[in-house]
Amino acid sequence: MSVFAPRSGSESAALPSLRERLWTLTVVIPLPRLARRLPLVAAAAVAALVVGLGLSGTGYRYDSFRPEMPRSAAPEPGDAPTALAALDGARAERAKLEKALKRAAPRGRYIVIDRTNNRLSLMEDGQARIEAVCSAGSGTTLVDARGNRSWTFDTPQGEFKVISKTRDPVWRKPDWAFVEEGEPLPKRPGDRIEYGTLGEYALHFGNGYMIHGTLYERLLGRSVTHGCIRLGREDLQRLFDSAPVGTPILIY
Amino acid sequence: MAVLFHAAAIRRAPNVSLVTVTALSVALGSTPSPDSAVAETLRLERQNERLKRQLELASSEGLYLLLDVERRALRLFDGGALLRQYSVTAIETGRPEVFFVDRELPADWQTRIWSQGQIVPRPEWRRLVIEAPTSPLEEAEIEARIPPPKEEVFPAPPSFAIRYDGGLLLEIVPRQGAAGQGNARKRLANVAGALGLGTHDALRLRLSLDAADVGALYRSLPPDTRFSLLADDPAP
Question: Domains in chain A, ordered, with CATH?
Answer without folding.
Answer: 110-251 (2.40.440.10)
